[in-house]
Amino acid sequence: MVNLQKIDHSESPVGLDLPKLRSHLAQNGMTLDASFVPQRFAAGFGNMNFLVEVDGAPMVLRRPPLGPIPPGANDMAREYRILSHLHDAYPLVPCAHLFCDDTDVIGAPFFLMEYRPGLVIGAAIPLEVKNAWSSDIPIGQLLGANMINVLAGLHAVDPAACGLETLGKPDGFLERTLRGWTKRAELSWAGDPAGELQAVLDWLASNRPAETKKPTLIHNDFKLDNIILDPETLEARTLIDWDMGTIGDPRFDLAILLSYWSEASDPAAMHDLKQMPTACHGFPTREEAAQYYARASDCDLNDFTFYRVLATLRIAVVFQQLYRRYQSGGTNDPKFAKFNDLALGLLDFAFQISRGKYF
Fold first, then answer.
1. What is the DSSP string of 293-317?
2. How far apart are CA 275 and CA 262, in angstroms?
3. CA-based torsion, 282, 287, 291, 293: positive or negative
4. 176-180 contacts: CB < 8 A, separation 24 or more?
5. DSSP assignment, residue 188?
6. CA–CA gap between residue 246 and residue 88 (Å, rounded)
7. CA angle 168, 172, 173 (to 5 degrees)
8. Which of 165, 167, 204, 354 could join 160 in a cystine, given CB atoms 3.0 to 4.6 angstroms apart?
9. Which residues in 22-41 are b (16+ Cβ under 10 Å) and which e?
10. Measured between alpha carbons, how far is residue 230 from residues 44, 65, 99, 234 in Å?
11. Are 358 and 352 in contact (CB under 8 A)?
């Protein structure tokens, strides 16, 4: 089976203490294969994922990134709980095998989960995938529909049927979410001018809709590179990255997806985001994707501009937090040095969405 996930090879990966890990697994009746060289998946700016071999089978070890962690982020215990319960009800979720909250083992909480190889698409569709595509359906049209179908399928799962009815606090979800991202934004730009931040926060505070939609399980960071695909059919094999999963308004999950969804006519910040290749290849527009979701889920999109603005504020804050991590020495990755400008550009885009200039 072809595995097109990019990985960095290292005999001693940063973020793992192999002797302590081997000892801890042995105490839990598991054997870390000493002959297998762990490999780090080289994707994203958040949690660290390593391919290891345990009891003769490949598994993924997942842990938070190095450096300071924003409150509520990178929650390994939460993610392990979700995977442990949701796998049977929603088979796209990988099976979790072991959780460890002892930071003396590898320096942070971690868990082991099932490894499902496949194709991960980030900012660009790999050339070999484009060259091999022979369908009359544009590749972006299929990928766009597949994403929406996966999201709608998740939102159709009954949390109570898989023991996750107490995962979150659905009452007051929008108010609490707005309050949380407002606080994070103010902390992220504390002491610095932040473009349209205050105008965006004022608009959101004045336009929060009533909470009328039945809460569902939501992923809270749903995007293309969190779906592992079959390399030939581009059908979803698994949905990963569940550390922010909760119960809440499914329209916010859709808005988060669309906050990564660039279009050809978007301002520079949305192209600099480089998260999904949706500005070409025949992908539907954000509005078309939203309407497709509405039909697939029987969900109305009343007051959806609020969700779009809030989700775009969210991603602006995330990139500003990453910039702060770079400033504080939590990472020396030079890409992070540009995230302040990107965050300000996304704030301006959120402002323009609130004024109806973009969907």
1. HHHHHT---TTHHHHHHHHHHHHHH
2. 8
3. positive
4. 177/248, 177/252, 177/310, 178/204, 178/205, 178/208, 178/310, 180/72
5. H
6. 17
7. 50
8. 165
9. bebbeeeeeebeeeeebbbb
10. 20, 28, 28, 5
11. yes
54 forms bridges with which residues in the sheet?
Answer: 32, 57
Alpha-carbon span 218 to 188, nearest angstrom = 25
Q: Which residues make Cβ contacts (< 8 Å) with residue 218, sequence separation at least 6?
A: 154, 155, 245, 246, 247, 248, 249, 250, 252, 253
Say what the pLDDT of residue 72 is: 62
Closest Cα partner for 147 from 260, 263, 20? 260
Both structure tokens of 277: 């290749």
Tokens 């949706």 — which residue?
A: 278
Structural domains of the chain, with CATH: 7-114 (3.30.200.20), 127-354 (3.90.1200.10)
Q: Please state, in angstroms and rounded to a whole number, the distance separating the CA atoms of residues 94 and 19.
A: 26
Contact between 58 and 52 under an 8 Å Cβ cutoff? The reply is: yes
Contacts of residue 328, Cβ cutoff 8 Å, sequence gap at least 6: 67, 68
pLDDT tens digits, residue range 324-345? Answer: 988 888 788 899 999 999 999 9
Helix, strand, coil distribution of the chain in percent, nearest 5: 45, 15, 45
CA distance 227 to 167: 22
Convert the pLDDT of each residue in 3-37 to its tens digit.
334 444 555 678 899 999 999 999 999 999 989 98
What the block records as the tokens of 119 is 């194709």
CA distance 348 to 325: 22
Q: Alpha-carbon Rg of the chain, whole angstroms? A: 20
Per-residue model confidence (pLDDT) at position 44: 60
